[in-house]
Amino acid sequence: MTSEYTPPPFNYCDYRCDRCEEQERCRVFKEEQERLLSHYVKGEDPNDPQVFMADIKKIFERTQQMIMKMARKHGIDVDEFETEEPPEVDPNEYVIYRLAHEYYKHAHGFVTELENTGIPVVVEEEYKDLVWYHTLIVAKSGRLVSGFIDDVLDGELQQYEEQGTLQVIKKGIDLSKNALEKMLDELPDGFHTIAHLMELLKRLEDQLAGDIRQKVG
């Protein structure tokens, strides 16, 4: 590894390709566009479950081949690896994940309530951000803590991976806070719920600024 290494965009992706400014240098985006185009040319529906699963299988096979090629290049005999279970992380041991999961639960309840009562036009865009990121924040928090005992990547690569994950979580928090602030003005009946969600995000934000590896109790 060198200090000149620049992680690709998909290392810190929030999966909203339509809003991303780095599509041109993102291999994942380009491959997805090629996949879609290939199916459209053949008259196939790329979202058909059978078509999609066949694509996933090809991706896994290609990834395996790429890993084997890299291993051979570096003189690694993969047949010598011992087959042992990777260490498991209980994300609930970490304060940061607990906070993210608590936010997810309350945000999901609020989202469900809005769906049932009807989403006001004035907060449609904010609602989309809230829906998108309330699941992504907890998922990425789980990914973050799982990397705390990851001994596969070297130190510098692991640091890039961690920083990329943190970047996505912080982006999700910022956009969710903006969405909730708008909702706070436009949805007076939801004042207490929205204020609580904002307080949870503030606690999560403070934890990110402090000890991200802090364990519960």
Descriptive notes:
The protein is globular. The chain has 217 residues and is an all-alpha fold. It has helices at residues 27-41, 49-73, 95-117, 124-146, 155-186, 191-209. The two termini are 37 Å apart. The protein has two domains: 23-80, no CATH class; 91-209, Four Helix Bundle (Hemerythrin (Met), subunit A) (Up-down Bundle), CATH 1.20.120. The chain contains six helices and no strands.
Structure keywords:
single chain; 217 residues; Four Helix Bundle (Hemerythrin (Met), subunit A); mainly alpha; globular
Q: Report the β-strand fraction as a percent range.
A: under 5%
CATH architecture of the largest domain: Up-down Bundle
Structural class assignment? mainly alpha
Gap between N and C termini, in Å? 37 Å
Number of helices: 6
Overall outline: globular
From the 3D structure, determine the CATH topology of the largest domain: Four Helix Bundle (Hemerythrin (Met), subunit A)
- Could you list the spans in which at least 5 consecutive residues all have pLDDT below 50? none
Number of strands: 0
CATH class division of the largest domain:
Mainly Alpha
Encode the helix/strand succession as letters: HHHHHH
Described by strand count, sense and barrel closure, the largest sheet is: none
The radius of gyration computed from the alpha-carbon positions, rounded to a whole number of angstroms, is 21 Å
Tell me the number of structural domains.
2
Helix content range of the residues, please? 55-70%
